[in-house]
Structure formats: C-alpha cells, structure tokens
Amino acid sequence: MKIFVDTNIFIDILLERKPFCDHSTLLYKLCENGVAEGYIAPITINNIYYICKKAHNLPLIKTFLAKISKDFTIAKMDETVIERVNRLPIADYEDALQYAMALQVGALYLVTRNLKDYKNVSHIRVCTPEALIEQLSS
C-alpha cells in the first residue's frame, strides 16, 4: 500500500506535538517496517529543517532527516507534476504539489492533518494518521 505523507506528520513526531505525535509515530513505523510504502515530497526535507531548527539541535534534526530519506521514497517533482498542480482545485500551492506527487507515485492515501485544503479532490483518499491507523486496524 502506497501512502504519501505530508510534512506536518514528521514535524509532529520531531516536536513531539501532543496528541498528534502518537499516531504519526505509528504511521512512521508502518513505513519503516515495510507494512506501507511511504513517499514524501522533496520539499518535506527542507521544510522540516527550517521549521524545527529553533526547537532542536541541528545534529538531531540532520539525523532525523537522514532516517526519513532512508525509510521513505522521495517523489520526483518534475514538469508533469507542475502541469498537474495548475489544474488542481487546491488553493495552497504546496498542498497541490504534494497531491500531484501523490498522484504521480500512485499513492492510495495522502496522510495529513491538514484535511481542509484537500476537500475538493477525490482521486486519492486524504486522511489523518489516526484515521488511517483505525482503518488498518479494523
């Protein structure tokens, strides 16, 4: 099962944001252990670094980013993705990029806590880590 994971899921883990980090960590472990095939956008690495660098020391962040790059496949952002973004009914450009990359890799799910920006799309199921874990458990 291919899942595309939004940046906010990793930030929840690294910053230990309660109550979100518990389900985000479980989702990460599904990908780490090969239960799910996880994908991320290339911008995810950069965004995690810049958002978290004030809260954590840089060696910890760099170690976490290296681990992510081993446990998740970094999707390609090419001209096909950019062309698709311009046709998507998603107002936030970064969210549209992630959705277009999720389509490109054939993801079944895009996992995020930011559901509201994806309400006008239907090709991929958009859900929270909690919802995906509950679905897989049943």
Please give a structural write-up:
The protein is built from seven helices and five strands. The two termini are 16 Å apart. The protein has helices at 7-14, 20-32, 42-52, 58-71, 79-85, 93-105, 129-137; strands at residues 2-5, 37-40, 73-74, 109-111, 125-127. Strands 3-2-1-4-5 form a five-stranded parallel beta sheet, with helices on both faces. The chain has a single domain (2-137), classed as 5'-nuclease (Rossmann fold, 3-Layer(aba) Sandwich), CATH 3.40.50.1010. 33% of the residues are buried. α1 crosses α2 and α3 runs antiparallel to α4. The chain is α/β, with parallel strands linked by helices. It is 54% helix and 12% strand.
Topology:
Layout: E1 2-5, H1 7-14, H2 20-32, E2 37-40, H3 42-52, H4 58-71, E3 73-74, H5 79-85, H6 93-105, E4 109-111, E5 125-127, H7 129-137
Parallel strand pairs: 1-2, 1-4, 2-3, 4-5
Strand order of the largest sheet: 3-2-1-4-5
Give the second-level CATH assignment, the architecture. Answer: 3-Layer(aba) Sandwich
Structural class: alpha/beta
- Main β-sheet: number of strands, strand sense, barrel status? 5 strands, parallel
Short description:
With 138 residues, the chain is of the alpha/beta class. The chain has helices at residues 7-14, 20-32, 42-52, 58-71, 79-85, 93-105, 129-137; strands at 2-5, 37-40, 73-74, 109-111, 125-127.
Brief descriptors of the model:
alpha/beta, 7 helices, single chain, Rossmann fold, 5-stranded parallel β-sheet, 138 residues
